[in-house]
Amino acid sequence: MKRATMASFSAKPSKRYNVRSISLPVRSHPSTLRTEEELNKLKAWEATTTTSEAKADSICKGLGGLKDLYICIEDLLQLPMTQQALALHQNERWVEELLDGSVNYLDVCCNTRDTILAMKESVRDLQSALRRRKVGGDSSLEDNLSSYTCIRKKTKKEILQLVASLKQMDHKHEAFPLDLDNHLAAVVRVLREASLITSSVFQSLVSFLSTPVLKPRPSRWSLVSILVQKGVLKCENNQHKSMNELENVDIAIGNVLVNQASEDIEAEKIQSAQRRLKVLDSSMEGLENGLEGLFRLLIRTRVSLLNILSH
């Protein structure tokens, strides 16, 4: 019976997971079942989210799903049967794996939050520069854009290290086979599945933050400028559905920097850039809030594990 239950868990899902129940033991505790439900919601989210093309609003939903998941995990860890079972196995290597994972995700949370704060500040500087340009023709936009671009490029370099760390954690989860009683096997598998889906959400987040900067070159933007001036292409209708919030800002700012525009067209392009920067600012705020809430829950999970294993 134990072997049949263990085999029901996916060792290496396609795309990372199959969208299905993890088939926990028939008599699983309600806390385990609630955790399973949240996991399956996140797997459904993942199935419709492409890591390399994720947008901020989708990632915010993923972070919200993780918060719901870790609330359920906290309830699961507070069960006496869970605490007793984990305490009996506190010297196992897979216990160390769980603790290491909790520390690594806290580090990723902190690093990505700092990145978002820097980008959000730069976005707001761009918004201010656009307002000044609209009112008095201020020329500081180029300087602010240069600063914003430098932050984006620096972010991309830092993100590469985070991605390597996340992928290393994923491989580590496959290294330790389990041979435990039904309840503890279910708990540990849930924690591992939670770690893998956490890594997936974070990879979508860091992929979004490391979006390459679309540089405004005359050859790239001249056609857009001509179409806008002719009234063929309206600024708000130029939002490409396949582009994320960062790319839309790049295009809008690039349009502002293109010359050969009348005053009316210039004002329209500035308004479009302001709108897209506002959307990006709101997106960054949502990501920051999502990370803050998740960070607190990850700390609670780690503290709970440490308390269980110290008894």
From TrEMBL:
It comes from the Eukaryota. GO terms for biological process: root development; shoot system development. Pfam families: BPS1. This is DUF241 domain-containing protein.
